[in-house]
């Protein structure tokens, strides 16, 4: 589903900006911090993106 893919990509990019901020290295980032978003997090992001789009269209 395109919205699921968009939400997944959005979360990955947000996490990427936080983790790889120029100060962190792979040595000091945990596996959990670098893991893929959970399905629950993706579904929450989908709701957020949908709400933002509805607001934008009003």
Explained architecture:
The protein has 2 helices and no strands. By secondary structure, it is mainly α. It has one domain (2-57). α1 crosses α2.
Global geometry: elongated
- Roughly what percent helix? 55-70%
Sheet with most strands: none
Q: Structural class per helix/strand content?
A: mainly alpha
Low-confidence stretches: none
User: What's the number of structural domains?
Assistant: 1
Give the tally of β-strands. 0
The proportion of residues in beta strands is under 5%
Report, as a whole number of angstroms, the end-to-end distance. Answer: 24 Å
Short description:
The chain is mainly α. Helix content is 64%, strand content 0%. The longest helix has 19 residues, at 39-57.
Question: What keywords describe this structure?
Answer:
single chain, 58 residues, mainly alpha, 2 helices
Any chance you could write out the topology, listing elements then pairs?
Elements: H1 2-19, H2 39-57
Helix pairs in contact: 1-2
